[in-house]
Amino acid sequence: MVKEEKWSRLQDKIYEAYMQRTPKSKQMYKRALTNLAGGVCGHARLFQPYPLYMTHGIESKIWDVDTNEYIDCFLNAGSLLLGHSHPEVIKEIRQESGKGLLVYNSDLEVRCAERLKEVIPCAERVRFANSGTEAVMFAVRVAREFTGKNKIIKFYGHYHGQDDQFLIGTSTNEDEVISSGVPQDSLTNTVLLRYNFIEDVVRKLDEDDDIAGIILDPQMSMGGIFPASIEYLKKLRRLSEERGVVLIFDEVITGFRLALGGAQEYFGVTPDLACYSKSIAGGAKFAAFMGKEEIMERLVPDGFSAYTGGGKSVFQSGTYNDGMAAIAGALAAIKVYKKLSEKGEYEKLHKRTANLAKAIEIAFKERRIGCQVNCLGASLKIFLTDLEPSFETYCKLDRMVLFLFFLSLINHGIILSWPSSGSIFLSFVHTDEDNEKIIEAVNLSLEKYRFEEAI
Ligand SMILES: Cc1ncc(COP(=O)(O)O)c(C=O)c1O
Question: Do 138 and 247 belong to one domain?
C-alpha cells in the first residue's frame, strides 16, 4: 500500500472515532458557521474535521459540549499556568469587578505595577495593555522613539503576535508572510535573521545604521523550542548596549512560565524592555510591557502637553487598559506565583514536564518511530524524526503525522495539544496522575492506530 493510502486510512479511522465522540461539537460547528466567520473566534482555533466546542474548565481539566472530559495540556496556548478557574484568581476578579468594570486610574493599577516591578528584573516602569500583540506593538514603538531609528531585528521561528510588521517567518526559516492582507510596505522595517547566530546580528548592525531594536522570544516557542544559549543572549545583550539598540524580550509565553521573573531571570540576562501577557493574569485578558526607566519615560508627555494629553511623547492608549477584572486577575495570579516560587514548585513543575517529555519519547521509540521532545520549563514540542532535531529539521517535517496523533489523543480524553497548534504546556495544577493518564493514552493511541505502519 502506498504511503498516501496508508495515511488516508489512518485519517479516516481517527476522524470516525472523533466524530462518534463529539456529535454536539459537530452540530455547534454547523451552527457557528452561519454567524462566526469560519465558526471560530481565531484562526488557530480551527481544525479538521471540525473543532471541539467547550463549556468549562477546572484545574487541569476542560469539558466539551458533549460532556467529554479532557486533561488539557494546551491551556489556551499556554496562558493557564495556574490551570482553569484558579480559586484565588476567580475570587479576586469577582471582588474587584464588583466595584466597577472600568475604574480608570484605580489604586489596583498602581498596586499591580508595584507587584510586577518586584518580580521582573527589567521592570523599572510598567504600562498595561490588552494582549501580547499590543504589548509588542507598544514596546517596538518606544524603542523606535528612543533610538530615533526604524528597523527591528526579528528572528525566524519567533512569533510576536498579529501586527502586520511581524507576520513573517514565524514558524519557518523562510520569508513567508503568514497572512494575506499584509501590505509589503508594512514589512520594510522588519529585518529577519537566524536565531542563535551572533555573527548574523553583528553583520547586520555593521551594514545598517537604522536598527532600533532586537526582539525575541527567549524560548523560540513557535519555532519548536530551540532556546538560545546563555552565551548567545549575553553577547546579544552586550552588542545591543554597545550599538545603542534596544533589546526586547517577548515574554508573552515565558513570563511567569519559565520562572517567577520570566526568561530574564531564568537566563540571567536583563533586556531593556519586555512584553507580557498570557500567564500574567491567570487567564484574564491582560498584558503589560515594561522596562528601563529612561526608555519607558518616552511615554510621558512633557510640559503643558502632560495636561492636554498631546505632545511629542510616544502615544500609548487603550480603553480597556484599566479593566478591573484583568488587573485583579493579575494581582491574584502574581501573588500565587510568588508563593509557588517560594515553595520550590517551579522546580517540581519543570521536573514533571521533563518526565512527560521523556515518557512520550519512549512511547514512540518503543514502536520504532523516531521521536524527540524538546522541553524547556513547562513547555514541550514533539518532533517525529530520526534526524537530529534542529530548527531547520523542524521546518521540513510533515506536520500531518502530529496533527493526527493529537486528534487521536482527543479520542482518549487528552488534549495534549490543540491539533492545529502542536504546542504543549503543563500548569502548576497538573499532577503526576495526570502525567500517567497522558502516557497511558499515548500508548493506547499508538497501539490502536498503529502509527508506525503509516509512517
Ligand atoms: C511569544 C508571543 N508573543 C506574542 C503573542 C501574541 O499574543 P496575543 O495572542 O495575546 O496577541 C503570542 C501569542 O501566542 C506569543 O506566543
Answer: yes
CB of 75 closer than 6 angstroms to any ligand 1 atom: no
Question: Is the C-beta atom of 136 inside 6 A of ligand 1?
Answer: yes
Percent of the chain past pLDDT 70, that is, above it, reads: 98
CA–centroid distance, 87 to ligand 1, in Å, is 25
Same domain, residue pair 11 and 63: yes
Helices (H) and strands (E) in the chain, counts: 17, 14
User: Considering only CA atoms, which residue is closest to atom 3 of ligand 1?
Assistant: 160
Could you tell me if 338 and 348 lie in one domain? no
Number of the ligand 1 atom closest to the C-alpha atom of 133: 11
- Summarised one tens digit per residue, pLDDT across range 163-199 is 999 999 999 999 999 999 999 999 999 999 999 999 9
Q: Is the pTM of this model over 0.90?
A: yes
CATH number of the domain to which 192 belongs: 3.40.640.10
Burial call 82-104: b when 16+ CB within 10 Å, e when fewer: bbbbbebbbebbeebbeeeeebe
State the distance from the centre of ligand 1 to the C-alpha of 86, rounded, in angstroms. 22
Statement to judge: residues 273 and 160 lie in one domain: yes
- Closest residue CA from atom 6 of ligand 1: 161
Hey, what's the cell of 143? 524603542
Section 417-431 average pLDDT: 97
Alpha-carbon span 230 to 450, nearest angstrom: 40
Q: Is the pLDDT of residue 2 over 80?
A: no
Point out the ligand 1 atom lying closest to the alpha carbon of residue 217. 1
pLDDT tens profile 295-338: 999 999 876 555 665 566 899 999 999 999 999 999 999 999 99
Helix (H) or strand (E) holding 192: strand 190-193
Indicate the number of domains in the chain.
2
